Amino acid sequence: MPELIKITEADGFDYPIQLQDWVLNILHGGGGEFDTASIKFTGNPLQLGKFENGITSIGLDTGIIFSTGKVIDIQSHNNSPYQSYHFDGLPDADLDSMYSKDYHLPINPFPPPPIKYTGDAAVIEFEYLPYGDEIVLRYVFGSEEYKHWKFPSSPPDDINLTDGPYSLDRMHDIFGISIEESGRPFKNIAMIAPREDLIYVDIHN
Fold first, then answer.
1. Using CA of residue 179, residue 33, residue 58, residue 172, what is the dihedral sign?
2. Is 62 exposed, middle or buried, given 0-12, 13-18 or 19+ CB atoms closer than 10 A?
3. Which of 30, 48, 68, 107 gives a 20 to 30 Å CA spacing to 85?
4. What is the pLDDT of residues 46-85, one digit of tens each?
5. pTM score
6. What DSSP designation does 166 have?
C-alpha cells in the first residue's frame, strides 16, 4: 500500500509565524528575496498546513497545503463520497473576478442576491523580489469534486458549465496564482497550455 501523505495543521495561535517559516524554508527554493512582513494567510487556520511523504500520492514530497476545507482531511483515505467542511468564510476578490469572467457573469456588481462565489477562500500572499526574470513554482491542484465530475454514475445534463445560466449549483473548485506589479492589473498565471484554460475541476483529466 502506498505511504499516505502526512499533514501538519497550522496552529490556531502561532500560524502567522509558522507560515513565515514554511514559506521561507519549504516554498522558497532560492533565487530571490521575501519581505517577511508581507507574508500572510487569509482564511481559517484549519485550512492551512504543510505536508510530507507526498511523492507517491501527488508527486511532490514536501510543501505547503491549503484548502477550502480542513487540510487534515486530506491525510486519510477518502471513504466518503462528499468529504467537505464549511467555515462560512469570506470570498476572495481576485478569484471572484476569475470565476465571473469564465462563467460570463457580471463582475461588479454580482447578480442579486449577493453570493459568496469563492466562500471559504484560502489565500497566501507575499512580496517577492526575484534575482532574475523567471519564477518557477510547482503545485498540485486537487478537488473532492473530481471523481463526481469525471466519473458520474449518470452523466449530468450539461457538463459544459460555461454555457449554462447562472445558478448556485454551478460553483466549483478554482485555483489561481497571481503576480501583481505596482501600477499593473491583476494577472493570473495558473493556466493550462495551450488554450490558457483556468484551473477548474471539470476541465482536468
1. negative
2. middle
3. 107
4. 999 999 999 988 899 999 999 988 999 888 766 665 667 8
5. 0.79
6. P
